[in-house]
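Quick one, tokens below:
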């Protein structure tokens, strides 16, 4: 073997992430066998014979981090003693490990688009909501993120940082870009984790107050219970089951809560089963009241304000305030309206009220400019 192919790459200095160095990561012989250079021997200043070679002047043209070149170099007598040991490749007496290639050379290095596609597909496998400025508990979200990384075998700091970008929304993407500029993508994961907590942690009582005071107002009681559970777990995932059940139940209407036997509730699902059964019964009762002939309110013989046998009156059958929904909307619009109301409540711009004298809030879609 009279010549070898060296792979040069620009990478971060191990003890200083902000400084770039030239490194030799692998050496390939004429039989297309590739040998890996250990990390402690990669710095190019250790390869004194390579630095003396005229080819290194061209390597210096590489300026950006992660730039790489593969260059064939005809070995001098000194290089042979440094890199060859009979038919083995070495570096100053250290035998290099051969890289086993299971694919053809044309497919060993996937294209950038393929790498991006793989990362995007991997991000969809995370069982976690995307992180945004509205995320209630930053530390809890990061704990879940790290456990998902362990499950999906994402071990290196670089992989975690790259996947994190795909799970950010809103202004968090600006924070990510700033971190790349300040610390580079090769910085330790602990640096990113600490910065994310310090930047977005919410030290106010608003999310806790909102979760604790969240009550059933209208619609499905089961949907209320599921949302209340999520809000409570977001502020404290270590909450005990009994306390979780009590906090969900306390937000139900009193006449529903009083019909639930507290001793029968061992798990949250037990409460859900009770709510589902009572919800079905309530619907049937309300339907019967609507079609009951005894409680129909109508004008008899054109006598205004009179009904059969007694004065006109209104009986409230359910402990809820009256509301109107005069306009129909799509499911997407309904979800958007509910999200807007949640944000207004969370930031204490509005508050829920059972008073008939409370001023209503009107939401209107802004016309696209």
């Amino acid at each position: 073997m009279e010549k070898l192919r060296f792979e040069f790459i620009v990478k971060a200095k191990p003890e200083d992430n902000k400084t770039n160095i030239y490194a030799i990561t692998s050496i390939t012989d004429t039989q297309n066998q590739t040998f890996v250079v250990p990390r402690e021997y990669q710095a190019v200043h250790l390869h004194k014979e390579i630095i003396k070679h005229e080819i290194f002047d061209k390597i210096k043209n590489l300026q950006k981090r992660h730039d790489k070149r593969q260059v064939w170099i005809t070995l001098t007598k000194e290089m042979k003693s440094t890199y060859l040991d009979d038919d083995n490749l070495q570096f100053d007496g250290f035998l290099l490990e051969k890289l086993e290639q299971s694919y053809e050379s044309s497919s060993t290095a996937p294209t950038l688009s393929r790498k991006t596609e793989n990362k995007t597909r991997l991000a969809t496998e995370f069982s976690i909501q995307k992180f945004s400025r509205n995320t209630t508990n930053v530390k809890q979200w990061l704990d879940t993120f790290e456990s998902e990384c362990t499950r999906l075998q994402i071990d290196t700091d670089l992989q975690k940082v790259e996947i994190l970008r795909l799970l950010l929304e809103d202004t968090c993407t600006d924070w990510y870009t700033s971190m790349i500029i300040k610390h580079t993508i090769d910085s330790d994961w602990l640096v990113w984790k600490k910065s994310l907590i310090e930047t977005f942690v919410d030290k106010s009582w608003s999310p806790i107050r909102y979760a604790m005071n969240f009550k059933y107002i209208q619609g499905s009681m089961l949907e209320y219970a599921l949302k209340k559970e999520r809000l409570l777990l977001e502020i404290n995932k270590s909450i005990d089951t009994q306390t979780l059940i009590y906090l969900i139940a306390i937000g139900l209407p009193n006449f529903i809560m009083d019909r639930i036997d507290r001793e029968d509730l061992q798990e949250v699902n037990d409460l859900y089963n009770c709510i589902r059964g009572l919800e079905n019964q309530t619907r049937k009762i309300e339907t019967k009241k609507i079609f009951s002939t005894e409680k129909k309110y109508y004008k008899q013989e054109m006598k205004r304000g009179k009904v059969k046998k007694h004065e006109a009156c209104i009986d409230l059958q359910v402990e809820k305030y009256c509301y109107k929904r005069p306009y129909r909307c799509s499911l997407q619009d309904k979800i958007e309206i509910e999200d807007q109301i949640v944000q207004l409540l969370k930031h204490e711009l509005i508050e829920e009220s059972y008073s008939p004298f409370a001023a209503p809030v009107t939401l209107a879609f802004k016309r696209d400019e």
